[in-house]
Specification:
CATH class: Mainly Alpha
CATH superfamily: Winged helix-like DNA-binding domain superfamily/Winged helix DNA-binding domain
Number of helices: 7
Order of helices and strands: HHHEHHEEHH
Structural class: mainly alpha
CATH architecture: Orthogonal Bundle
Protein name: MarR family transcriptional regulator
Mean pLDDT: 75
InterPro entries: WH-like_DNA-bd_sf (IPR036388), WH_DNA-bd_sf (IPR036390)
CATH topology: Arc Repressor Mutant, subunit A
Low-confidence stretches: 19-41, 163-170
Largest sheet: 3 strands, antiparallel
Strand order of the largest sheet: 1-3-2
Helix content: 55-70%
Number of strands: 3
Amino acid sequence: MRLIGIANELLAMAKDLEMTAPHDAPSLPVAGSAAGSSTAGQDHPVWVELARQTYEDRRRRTKIFQTEELFGEPAWDILLDLFIAAKERRRVSVTSACIGSAVPSTTALRWISILERSGLLMREADPGDARRVYVRLSPRGYDAMLEYFSASSRSVVLLDDGTAEMGKRR
């Protein structure tokens, strides 16, 4: 019950932040956010916090166990980083994605290529700097991340319609 309460508080804070976000901020395209997207109705503001926590937990394991060799999963780290960036409407360069994956650049670049071939991410050239390339989740990748967090958080996150009913039970 305590965890549910905390999740509801996080949800309320996320909604407040979303409502108070400046409307004049540059809008970056968010993969999968189109009205026709199959998961558009499933998106939830607290999932970006769960993604951040998941990413931080992965870094914490490496610190606690004092080795990077036990927990390598660069593709998942890249997907988490890109999901968080999409929710924050922030662009991620290939270089930044490599750093965020916590593996050597050659390994990260190989995983970026694999994720691109799998249709989970897309590369985009920077129109202002021909040397820079951005990566972002494809609509399929974004939808897959939404599905993952929807399924993995089902016991923690109470969606708007469930919150009111939970309050009535108390």
